[in-house]
Amino acid sequence: MIVALVSSGDGAATFMAELGKKGNSHARWNKICDKFEKYCDRGGGAIISSYIGLLFLLVITVLSIIKLLKRN
């Protein structure tokens, strides 16, 4: 359940970053990354590190499940 919550948070952050980068002409949202480049670069780094954290969480969860199954 925790992996699902973290994964959905990463997906939402990625969607918002893409929206900030390209904008949305239908909703009349302008892109902002052309005005705030450093902010978008740091946000991109944060999203990458968040996905790395999700990968580590997934590995730890799988290892814990394997360890629990080996006891029986």
Radius of gyration computed on alpha carbons: 17 Å
Q: Would you count the extended β strands for me? A: 0
> How far apart lie the N and C ends?
23 Å
Helix and strand content put the structural class at: mainly alpha
Shape descriptor:
elongated
- Report on the biggest sheet: none
SS strand fraction: under 5%
Low-pLDDT parts are none
**Strand-and-helix sequence, N→C?**
HH
Mean pLDDT over the residues:
87
With helices defined by DSSP (H or I, 4 residues minimum), what is the helix count? 2
**What percentage of residues falls in helices of 4 or more residues?**
over 70%
Describe the structure.
With 72 residues, this protein is mainly α. It is 78% helix and 0% strand. The chain has helices at 2-22, 37-71. The model has no long low-confidence stretch (mean pLDDT 87).
Q: Summary?
A:
Helix content is 78%, strand content 0%.
Topology:
Blueprint: H1 2-22, H2 37-71
Features:
72 residues, 2 helices, mainly alpha, 78% helix
